[in-house]
Write a structure and sequence with these properties.
Number of helices: 3
Number of strands: 16
Structural class: alpha+beta
Distance between the termini: 14 Å
Low-confidence stretches: 6-18, 73-80, 246-261
Radius of gyration: 23 Å
Number of domains: 2
Shape: globular
Order of helices and strands: HEEEEEEEEEEEEHEEEEH
Largest sheet: 8 strands, antiparallel
Length: 283
């Protein structure tokens, strides 16, 4: 009995060790566009990304694209943002620099923001489905960032000349109701019903990984250009997240570390066996 209790205690302590985040690389390794415009992209923990799950390994995420209703502003005028209303299906592709989105007003072209996630006139929305609940996002990486010229629809350069910001949320339910209702409020006051807002490290302008500081979890990660702005264009080239649960002691349970979990279990069993033999001898 004592050995069983010890095993449970040690297992609970080991399973309570912080999880290693799983990272998905969503950038094309060869440059250019390696996935043509589609409605859905799958990315695996191993094997890259594709329009099907064939050849992908490990944890697989499913990415789809939408946009808010709105109109593209003529050159020299301010954009008309509409973050309220039905979300419209958009097209998604994998470029150098990561995932980009093209919507019906901004068809895919050679100049950004047509091939980036942006908030110029309307908001492009990237929806990431982890496939199960309780995923905690630890970081989102930007491989391409461009601040859109306030006097036109293009960018001022291939890299950001100022902060390029995005908003993100996690939640467990995403269906036709979510798509129909979309955001409530407008600009910085906009919220997404049923989802928790994420908080990322401050942006200094440009590309790179931005860590996330909340404990909010969910099945779906939603990313869009800052709802308070109209000049942010970027591509997502990496997402890192870990999944929690409940251990034997009722504590958070991380994703088992690949390759190390069997060794830990074997060590626990050996330790328990040794303890029980010593206990038997003492008797």
């Amino acid at each position: 009995m004592a050995g069983t209790r010890l095993l449970a205690l040690l297992a609970g302590l080991v399973l309570g060790v912080p999880a290693w985040a799983i990272t998905w690389n969503t950038e094309t390794p060869s440059g250019g566009t390696d996935i043509s415009l589609t409605s859905t992209i799958f990315c695996g923990q191993t094997g890259g990304c594709g329009t099907t799950t064939a050849g992908l390994g490990g944890a697989i995420i499913t990415m789809t694209a939408y946009s808010t209703q709105g109109t593209i502003a003529p050159a020299g005028t301010s954009p008309t943002d509409d973050t309220v209303g039905a979300w419209l299906a958009a097209q998604i592709a994998r470029y150098a620099g990561g995932i980009g989105i093209s919507n019906s007003p901004q068809t895919e072209g050679t100049a950004s923001p047509q091939n980036a996630i942006d908030n110029r006139g309307l908001n492009d929305i990237l929806v990431v489905d982890f496939g199960s609940t309780n995923w905690d996002v630890s970081s989102v990486s930007i491989g391409y960032a461009c601040q859109i010229n306030s006097l036109g629809s293009g960018c001022t350069g291939t890299t950001s000349v100022g902060p390029v910001n995005f908003d993100a949320w996690v939640g467990n339910t995403f269906n036709s109701t979510t798509i129909t209702n979309g955001f409530t409020g407008n600009g910085a006051a906009a919220t997404l019903p049923g989802f928790s807002a994420l908080t990322f490290s401050p942006d200094s302008g440009g590309t790179g990984s931005r860590s996330e500081g909340t404990s909010a979890t969910g099945r779906y990660l939603i990313i869009t250009g800052s709802l308070a702005g109209s000049s942010d264009a970027f591509r997502v080239n990496g997402i890192a997240a870990s999944q929690g649960g409940v251990s034997l002691l009722g504590q958070p349970l991380p994703v088992p570390l690949p390759g190390s979990a069997p060794l830990i279990v074997a060590a626990l069993l050996a330790l328990t066996w040794t303890f029980r033999r010593q206990l038997a001898k003492a008797r």
